[in-house]
Amino acid sequence: MQQGNLTALSITIFVILTVVLIGFLAGRDKATRSSVEEWSVGGRRFGGLLVWFLVGADLYTAYTFLGLTSTAYTAGSLAFFAIPYSVLAYFISYFFLPKLWKVANEHKLTTLADYARERFDSKLLSSLIAIVGVLMLIPYICLQLSGIQDTLQVAGTGFINVKVVVITSFLLVALYTFFSGIKGPTYTAIIKDVLVWAIMLFMVVSLPIMHFGGWNPMVDKIVTEAPHLLTIPESGPKGVAWFMTAAFVSSLALFMWAHAATGVFTAKSADAIRKNALYLPLYNIVLILVVFLGFIAFLVLPDGTDPRFALLALIQTSYGGIGQGLAYSTIALASLIPCSIMAIGASNLFANNIYRDLINPKVKGAKLTMITRGMVFIVIGLALLFGLVFPQALVSLQLLGVSGMVQIFPAIVISLFWRNQSREATIIGLIVGLVVTFTVYSTGTSLGIYEGFWGLMANFATVVVLNPIFVKKAKNSSSAVKDYLFNQTLKEEQLVRKGA
Amino acid sequence: MKKLLLIVLISAPFIAQLVVLPFVNRIDPIIFGLPFLQFWLFLWIVLTPFCTLGIYHLQKSEGSLD
């Protein structure tokens, strides 16, 4: 590894420490940790703009920037699947998130598994969803970890022990998350988002000028020298069919992630969520530009550069100390802040839906709050352990994360609209979906289609075929959430009659 | 009429960003400095919020927004 740059390293460390400090300051008020609802979803008081920053911080991570550029570097336009994926994810969310938010608000729910438990009156289903959620989220946290590790390695080789700094910065994040709850990542997310926009725009404007004399000469050069980068392969294991199914399945999966759901539940009204669904697609303009940075890396960097380091190496060869420092600190923040939100999401699932629903149903109040907060250290500790000790074991889980998460879509979203969806069919469908996804992945029989697509189709088919068998029970059963969702007009009529 | 418009607004982002991909998967023409595929994706980043906005106003005028 080439020696790092001391100015760049100092700037990066300075920015990280400032943000950690702000993370702590965000929790000065003791109320931020007084209950699970305050700590994990900020008492549901965030307006549209804060939710925007929070969801943006959630979803645009270090892995987004490093992963997309390295995909663009190796596989060209396949990387653009991230565009329709996230645009459609927000579009789809417009139709179900406001409803989900209202149920969660009315019944004081803080996780998606909470919703499934109340909707289907099933602790089995809620703990199953929580296990899938935590199992898929820890590898995702590890990805952030390797993002900051790579960044510090490029910035600090020869000056610092990268592992020690990575562990320290993650423990600091765990500590401020424990202390401030969701308020920590929210306020720091604003800094991160502003930096991301500023730095990415700066890079997209300056890099083509530095290396090619402008944007248009750059595009001409890609067209003549590497046209294969600019279109999606027609066939092969990852071609157009993969692109379409991957984008579609990922867009359904996005808000099934615990950290995305946490961000959504902080909103103060269903309208704040609608507005976010409306404006968040615009955030993706950054993503298109980021993919082009991968193309620039392809043209500029010497052959044999490790694709994983495509963006970082491009920054290193193009800028001086200050420019490098600002770029590295942006990527470092894009790793640490989402990590904090992910840890909150995973801890919440663990404490509420695995510990309480499965192990100790009597726990409540202050003790549950303390357990939820304490789980942050376990979740981040596990991520550190796996990330540093068994990095290889995580690769499959990372690849399958989206395909696994999307399997809870029928339980969470379809159930908002389908009154007679039965508990049994939903649980079996979820399990079938997971099994099919893993089988297709491990046997390599995806036929050029995204693995999660096969799983989701099997999942849907199972629910539809099995539901009639259990429908009688579902029809007769009732729960507060079910009444709220489907009998509201009935209730209002009754109230009117009583009043008259 | 309103129902038809609603269906169009709901399906347009899916058709434009998934179904027609094989037909827009090309480099020429280059528009605003973007090869055609990238231009097309960029265009729908901007157009999708308008679809959502249209749906929002339709629902509001019908009173079906709760």
From TrEMBL, chain A:
PROSITE patterns: NA_SOLUT_SYMP_3. The chain crosses the membrane at residues 6-26, 46-66, 78-97, 124-148, 160-182, 194-213, 240-265, 277-301, 326-350, 371-390, 396-418, 425-441, 453-471. It is found in: Membrane. It is a multi-pass membrane protein. Keywords: Membrane, Transmembrane, Transmembrane helix, Transport. Coiled coil: none annotated. Pfam families: SSF. Belongs to the sodium:solute symporter (SSF) (TC 2.A.21) family. This is Sodium:solute symporter. It comes from Fictibacillus nanhaiensis.
Automatic annotation (TrEMBL), chain B:
Keywords: Membrane, Transmembrane, Transmembrane helix. The keyword Membrane applies. The chain crosses the membrane at residues 40-58. It comes from the Bacteria. This is DUF3311 domain-containing protein.
